[in-house]
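Retro notes (design track)

What went well: tokenization of the new backbones is finally stable.
What didn't: we kept losing track of which sequence belonged to which structure.
Fix going forward: every design gets posted as structure first, then sequence, in one message. First example under the new rule, 321 residues:
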């Protein structure tokens, strides 16, 4: 073999080896999953499940950092400003992309252009509950009461899933009710149990024990199907509101500018992790059903959910600042 050709072959081999070494080196340092909600909440606990399994797969520690505040906007903004090298990810509920742009005049970033979806992780539904002493045992009872007198409903805050669910239901049922926003789900449930408010949509896991103890009454669930956790509780569709269904998605995202190989890497990792039976069961315990959708599915979910909440809230109809 001529000397020049040997040199070219050697050079090409070195380039291919270097490229392979670089590819194998990712991730090259610890990975951080930012959760934009409070420590101990469903999103935080879910991220820790992912971190545990990803650490065992990717050859680097995967840590979870909670950055709550402003309905998830603070943590999402932090990730939007992070390096796009693939070592910082965001686990968020859909509201940052679907609701926050409708209720915040200034977010400090654009969630649609400054973040990129990796996967649609899963979704959760809620249950409509009332205090037992209010005398309401069915959705029809609640609607009749709301038409006869002013009812108050609780939520974890303006723009929270419970707020949006009740608002959408009230519009569909043709009723009005006063919204009482709380600083989180726990104080809202506390006042529901104490009958300080009349109703509320809440995450099933947050009230399961109170339903079992008879401290609250479940009237309906918000999803398309009955919850395996509450098999005797009908869907809203079954109670006279056909095709009424509300679910909320969880998404894993990267800062804008992440390369195609990085996005494919994390999408593949999550696709594999979300098929692990242990992960499926642990997310189920957090009231989350696995969807395991790719970036295309995530964008489609955000588009559909954004249209639904825009119809419920109206553009600029409920600004917080």
């Amino acid at each position: 073999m001529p000397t020049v050709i040997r040199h070219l072959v050697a050079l090409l081999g070195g380039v291919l080896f270097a490229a392979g070494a670089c590819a194998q080196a990712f991730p090259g340092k610890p990975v951080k999953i930012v959760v934009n909600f409070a420590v101990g909440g469903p999103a935080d606990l879910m991220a820790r499940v992912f971190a545990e399994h990803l650490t065992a797969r990717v050859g680097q520690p995967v840590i979870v950092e909670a950055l709550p505040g402003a309905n998830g906007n603070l943590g999402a903004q932090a990730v939007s400003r992070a390096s796009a090298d693939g070592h910082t990810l965001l686990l968020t509920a859909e509201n940052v992309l679907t609701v926050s742009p409708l209720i915040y005049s200034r977010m400090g970033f654009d969630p649609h252009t400054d973040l990129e979806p990796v996967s649609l992780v899963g979704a959760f539904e809620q249950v409509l509950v009332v205090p037992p002493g209010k005398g309401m045992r069915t959705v029809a009872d609640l609607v009749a009461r709301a038409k006869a007198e002013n009812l108050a409903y609780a939520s974890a805050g303006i723009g929270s899933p419970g707020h949006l669910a009740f608002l959408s239901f009230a519009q569909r049922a043709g009723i009005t009710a006063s919204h009482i926003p709380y600083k989180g789900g726990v104080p809202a449930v506390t006042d529901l149990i104490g009958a300080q408010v009349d109703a509320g949509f809440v995450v099933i896991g947050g009230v399961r024990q109170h339903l079992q103890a008879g401290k609250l009454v479940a009237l309906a669930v918000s999803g398309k199907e009955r919850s395996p956790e509450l098999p005797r509780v009908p869907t809203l569709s079954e109670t006279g509101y056909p095709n009424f269904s509300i679910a909320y998605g969880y998404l894993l995202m990267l800062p804008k500018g992440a390369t195609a190989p990085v996005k494919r890497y994390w999408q593949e990792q999550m696709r594999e992790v979300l098929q692990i039976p242990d992960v499926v069961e642990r997310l189920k315990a957090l009231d989350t059903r696995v969807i395991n959708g790719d970036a295309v599915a995530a964008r489609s979910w955000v588009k559909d959910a954004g249209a639904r909440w825009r119809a419920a809230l109206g553009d600029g109809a409920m600004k917080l600042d």
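Added context from the reviewer: The CA atoms of residues 230 and 303 lie 30 Å apart.
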